[in-house]
Amino acid sequence: MLQKWITSIGLDIGTSTTKLIVSKLLIANQQNQFTLPGCQIIDRRVTYASSIYTTPMLNEVEIDVQRLTVLLEQEYKNAGISLDQVEAGAVIITGETARKQNAESILHYLAEHAGDFVVATAGADLEGMLAAKGSGAIQRSAETNAVIANIDVGGGTANIALCQNGKVIETFTLHVGGRLIRLNSDGFVTYISSYLTEFLKNNSLILREGEKATFEKLSSICQLLAEETVNYVKALNQNSTLLVSPHTRSSIHPETIMVSGGVGAMMEKQKPKTVEEVAIHGDVGPLLAYHFQSIQVSQAAETTRATVIGAGMQNTEVSGSTVYIGSKRLPLKNIPIIEIPVQQEETWNQQLFQERARASCMQASTIFSAEDPPVAIALSHFPYCSYKMLQELAKIISAEFIACFKGAKCLVVLCEQDIAKALGQALAKQRKELEIICLDQINFTHGDYIDLGLPVAGEAISVSVKTLAFSS
User: CA-to-CA distance for 59 and 17, rounded, in angstroms?
Assistant: First the structure.
């Protein structure tokens, strides 16, 4: 068995902080005379974790690219690696920082100057998914069969993910964070987010820039923010003025709530007793952390670095030989994978599959950017398939895909079984305007990215599945 260690790096640029992690991944080529060649990761080790830096800003709306570049170069030296050694990884811009004026240009700059990265600008929903994975919430839900809620509270937002059976089932985000109110050492308010104005007014609390805040008023505000967040997570409230984007709260009640992020990390510290102790970081983070702790939610196993991506794990393989490729777009890189179970019931249920397909596509349309193809639909739990069932599958998949991704012209479908050619042909008949790529014999994981290469053996193509790997 041929083996190779590769170096992978991840960089998380958040509202308050920036951090970097370096990992070593052991790639093994498990080719033998009975199977097609394939590679997979058999070991991973986090070899370096940077200090946690304050995100460098030129002003309220611009990230300081030059200082960020200097920081990255210094951390590469500290980690003992060079650019040409980095073979995988990810750059993630999260929270309020992702909405700054030059966030997109920074992503492209860092991707070009920091190795062969999987690059993703994390929207609020994607950030919640990443944090749930990094905090241990997804793993805990898989082990306990319980619904676990993870609240990742940073400087500007609280990104929430509900997890069940090892998967994220619902995400939403609130304008709740430590740096939405900023103070100097004397307790004067230097900044208050406009997102809090209506919420404070509705609760008969007024706070203005330039005002010297009292400990009692700051404590009341932080208590309200923590309670509003937890009550919405528990589905005790069906709406909130703090929602980042419109959201219809389901009736799902989590059995456990954990808190990660910078605010989550401060939950273990003692309650601040004066305005000076509250403002130790120039914001209300310590007091907000105390009030989350006081309503008996638990601190996540991983807090500050929950959203940091340690590495991009790659699993390279070859697709099945009976694929359907009705597109000239290959090669394609960094397509997000969404998994849709075909049959979770004893028999095929067309209506329930359509409900799952609709929910998955709708959620994906809020998470991922409008690239084309926007996602790859991965069909799991695929039983024996009759001709009639195949036609029904094709009709539902194409209809829900078009409904959620109106501008898309290319549909990518991944199957575990040897059915890609027949399904691809059925999909092509359903929507003649769509370019169809349908592949089988693909091992995929929910939330991954996939690269599709050029044909390597007949119609078979090379495939690289990239998994977000977190420090543990």
Answer: 15
